[in-house]
């Protein structure tokens, strides 16, 4: 007698559905918290009224910068102004010593170059081609003293709390890191606060977008305005990739 086996249709249909459900549940698990924004961070609620305002978000982000041991940071523009001296890009490590070690690219006295930079003990050193290490005044090349970018009174964190007309945008994944969710805040910043970090800036006010992560930390600041006299508005972007960095930096 021959046994007729019926097709296992139910099992055949169930397996893909289970797999689909598993993928969906993993996807939801991976995206959990994506809708959270710094405005739901109770640690930033300074006045305890159960409502976190954009101003409190900026104050909390400033606190994170002011309390870190150091950061890995870059400051750059994609624009190319017609100027004898301007900073195109700088990146490296800043510690609260205060000190900085990294590289800078730009036009220095009409010459375009990329150089190594160390700023420590209130002195600014640049390794120039042929010449070697030399001490310079950073303002002479329209660059900030990078060691002071973490200064609570005149550095990047001061720009956050100087911002006016703050508006919160929609949370999104960071372009530089797909696993990082950030929330943008648009604002205007008085020129005085910008001049502390980019000394050649004559503009009275600058448009700003601050990107804050779920821990309330500043990840990116995009600043647009008049950074050089007689030059069209430029956009500089400050990006912070790592907090709580420690590094011993010494003079060359």
Automatic annotation (TrEMBL):
Keywords: Cell membrane, Membrane, Signal. Residues 31-53 are annotated as: Disordered. It comes from the Bacteria. Its main location: other. It is found in: Cell envelope. PROSITE patterns: EF_HAND_1 (PS00018), PROKAR_LIPOPROTEIN (PS51257). Residues 1-29 form the signal peptide. Belongs to the LppX/LprAFG lipoprotein family. This is LppX_LprAFG lipoprotein.
């Amino acid at each position: 007698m021959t046994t007729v086996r019926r097709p296992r249709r139910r099992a055949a249909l169930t397996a893909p559905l289970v797999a689909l459900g598993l993928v969906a549940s993993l996807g939801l698990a991976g995206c959990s918290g994506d809708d959270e924004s710094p405005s739901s961070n109770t640690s930033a609620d300074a006045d305890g009224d159960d409502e976190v305002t954009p101003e409190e978000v900026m104050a909390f982000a400033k606190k994170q910068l002011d309390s870190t041991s150091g950061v890995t940071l870059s400051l750059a523009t994609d624009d190319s102004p017609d100027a004898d001296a301007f900073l195109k890009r700088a990146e490296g490590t800043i510690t609260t010593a205060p000190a900085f070690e990294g590289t800078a690219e730009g036009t220095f006295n009409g010459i375009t170059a990329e150089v190594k930079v160390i700023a420590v003990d209130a002195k600014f050193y640049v390794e120039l081609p042929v010449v070697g290490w030399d001490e310079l005044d950073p303002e002479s090349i329209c660059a900030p003293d990078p060691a002071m970018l973490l200064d609570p009174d005149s550095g990047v964190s001061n720009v956050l709390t100087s911002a006016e007309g703050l508006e919160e945008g929609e949370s999104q994944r960071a372009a530089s890191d797909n696993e990082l969710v950030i929330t943008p805040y648009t604002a205007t910043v008085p020129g005085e606060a910008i001049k502390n970090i980019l000394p050649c800036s004559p503009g009275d006010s600058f448009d700003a977008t601050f990107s804050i992560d779920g821990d309330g930390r500043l990840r990116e600041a995009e600043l647009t305005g008049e950074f050089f006299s007689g030059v069209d508005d430029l956009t500089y972007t400050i990006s912070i990739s790592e907090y709580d960095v420690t590094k011993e930096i010494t003079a060359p």
